[in-house]
Amino acid sequence: MNTNLIITNGRLVDGTTDKQLDIGIADGRVIELAEPGELTIKGEQIDADGAYVMPGLVDIQVHFRTPGGEESEDIQSGAQGAALGGVTACVMMPNTVPTIDNVAIVEAVKALSLSAPCDLRSSAAITINREGERLVNFKELYEAGVRVFTDDGWVVDSEELMRQAFIGIRDFPDAVLSQHAEESEMVEGGVINEGVVSRRLGLKGRPREAEAVIVKRDIDLARQTDGRYHVLHMSTLMALEHVIAAKFEGLRVTAEVTPQHLVLTEDDVERLGTSGKMNPPLRLLEDVEALRVGLIRGHVDAVATDHAPHHPELKGTSMATAAPGMLGVETMASVIWSEFVETGLMSPTDFVRRLSVNPAKIAGITDHGKQVQIGAVANLAVFDPSQSWTVRGEDLVSKSRNTPWEGRSFAGRIRHTVLAGSPVVINSCLVS
Ligand code: DOR
Known about the structure:
Distance between the termini: 15 Å
CATH class of the largest domain: Alpha Beta
CATH architecture of the largest domain: Alpha-Beta Barrel
Number of domains: 2
Largest sheet: 7 strands, mixed
Number of strands: 21
Bound molecules: (4S)-2,6-dioxohexahydropyrimidine-4-carboxylic acid
CATH superfamily of the largest domain: Metal-dependent hydrolases
Shape: globular
CATH topology of the largest domain: TIM Barrel
Low-confidence stretches: none
Helix content: 25-40%
Strand order of the largest sheet: 3-2-7-18-19-20-21
Strand content: 15-25%
């Protein structure tokens, strides 16, 4: 049961407001906003002195491996990492075993998510078992609460099937097709970015062009069908150019980028070993620079982590055979704040827009990423920019250790997280 909560001495930044304000919360909702020290309601106090209070972050691409991959992560461990990272809502990807492609599995995952310290939403596949042959039942899945449809991990190869999918979601204005944009034949057997490093290591590469080809094709389909389209973990300058052109045209096209694609390049792969392997792969400096500018200017709508835990046995093999993917949900806020806000490239307001407001809109998530006003559900994160943090994989709450940030220090860390009016993280520790 919720007791009253008051958050004091923080600077409220919600994408619209940027002001020193105390917040009073009762029954899970914001009931009072007041100048510091002026709240009339009493309650358990959360100290936000020197910190930013913001709508909880929203990560629209996580792999919590339920069902079928619980040796790497499960709903509880994934959601705990999210809470520690200030994330109050996540969209879980459907590349599970079995695939999340029908209402029964959506409902089963929903039931397991009820007690998690984060609001968890399932996406669903676009095609049955992500095999790219038959479409899922969009209507039934939409009625069960699914808003994001994706065959993530794999692309929908068939242009005609993708066109049918756009038509299939047309009646559901807040549903979106999210694509893992890498053309299959071009990346077949590919391990890391195709380039100098792949040649030096003798590994088959995944060409950058494979992403642009699919993004361009899908944008053409979105135009034909008036569909909503979202690019998952966009990694190249060429794809970004297509997205920018689509936005100028007024198409309903959005894109997300991961923290790793905003900071690391193919040159980091040898240092990182298998923790540096993911799909799409780490790219070139020119891609990183373009994506960073895109994020700052708002052409890239959101940051999402593609949190992809893999049990040490799945990562502890050779580069060619290791599972692709990196951890991210617990570290996203610190990486992006350090790289963009601490350095003066982005305002706290834009940080909140890219990590909370925009992703919530893209994924049709209500009650998160919203202005902190009277009556709003109190899904909040408190970020302390003065707390430095050196990441150690063994300290993360995930069941896996494949962080690309091992030993790296960041300026700032989530201090508290509040989910529907209840603290789930206090002083960077989970509330038991
Ligand atoms: O590297 C990746 N790993 N990319 C994906 O799209 C899927 C993810 C996973 O599920 O491990």
